[in-house]
Amino acid sequence: MLEIVQILQGVLERGLIFSVVVAGVYLATQLINFDNLSIEGAFGLGGALTALLLFHGVNPWITLLCALLAGIVSGMITGYLHKNLKLNPLISGIVMTTGLFSILLKIAGSNMMINQQATIFTTFKFIPNYLQKLLILTLLMSLLFTCIRWFLTTEVGFLLHALGDNPQMLINVGKRVDRYTMLGIGLSNGLAALSGALFVQYTGYFSIWASVGILIIGLAGMILAQSISKSFGIALLLGSIFYQVIITLTFELQLDQSWNKLVTAVLIVLLIVLKDSLRKP
C-alpha cells in the first residue's frame, strides 16, 4: 500500500513540474499560433543555469527567477530570428535549440550534480520531508497558473490572443506584430526554462539529455488537456498528470523503457485521431 502511495505521489509531483512545459506549449501553439521548437532548448537552459547557480550557493528561489528570465531571452531571440530575419518558425526553433546545446555544455557540462546544496524543497523545515516536494509544488503551481490566468485577462493578454487569431488586428490598433510575437515566444520559453529549473532541483542533478523529448511531453499533455477544456487552466495540470500516469504504467507493466518514446508517439496520434473523429457530425 505504501509503495502505491509513493508511486502516486511521484506521478503528481512530476505532473506538476511538467505542467509548466504544457503551459508553455499552450501559450505558443494555442495563444499566438506559433510552432515553438525551441522549448526543449529552453528547458535545458533553465536546468543548466539552475545547476550552476546552486553549485555556487545561490539562493534556490533566485535561481528559479534567473532561469525564467534566461528562458524569456531565448524565446525573444527565437522570435527575432523569425520576424526580423524572416526565418521559418520551425527553422527558428531548431536553430535556437541547436545553439543552446553548445551553451549548455559550457554552462554545466553534460551533467552536473548539485550535491547537498539547498533547494526550494528544503526551504521550509516545518513541512514533513515526505510531503515537502508535493506541497511546495502544489502551492507554486497554484500561484503560477493564477498569475498566468490573470495576465491573459490584461490588455497585453488580449493582444496576444488577437495575435494568434488575426495579426491584422494588432496593426489596426497601432501595435507591432513582431514585438508581441517575441513576447509570446519569450513567455513560452520562460515557462519551459522554469520547468527545467524545477526538475533539476527536484532530481538533484542536471543532464544535458534530460531535455530530449520535453516538447513531446508538453504536446501530449496539452492534447490530453484539450480533451477536457480548450481554455487555459487546471485542465493543463490534469493533462500533464495524466500523461505521467501513462508513462508510470509502462514501468509498472514492466514494458521495456526503450519503447517509452514510441508509446508517446502512438498516444499522440491516437489522441489527435480521436479528437478529429469527435468533431465530425
Considering DSSP H and I runs of 4 or more, what fraction of the residues is helical?
over 70%
CATH first level:
Mainly Alpha
Averaged pLDDT: 87
Could you list the spans in which at least 5 consecutive residues all have pLDDT below 50?
none
Chart the SSEs and their pairings.
Layout lengths: L1 H30 L7 H17 L4 H24 L5 H20 L2 E3 L15 H23 L3 H11 L2 H5 L4 H27 L1 E3 L6 H13 L7 H19 L7 H20 L2
Antiparallel strand pairs: 1-2
What does this entry look like structurally?
With 281 residues, the protein is mainly α. It has a single domain, classed as ABC transporter involved in vitamin B12 uptake, BtuC (Orthogonal Bundle), CATH 1.10.3470. The chain is 74% helix and 2% strand. A two-stranded antiparallel ribbon has the order 1-2. Helix 1 crosses helix 9, helix 2 runs parallel beside helix 4 and helix 3 runs antiparallel to helix 8. The mean pLDDT is 87.
Give a quick precis of the structure:
By secondary structure, the protein is mainly α.
Short descriptors:
281 residues, mainly alpha, ABC transporter involved in vitamin B12 uptake, BtuC, two-stranded antiparallel ribbon, 2 strands, 74% helix
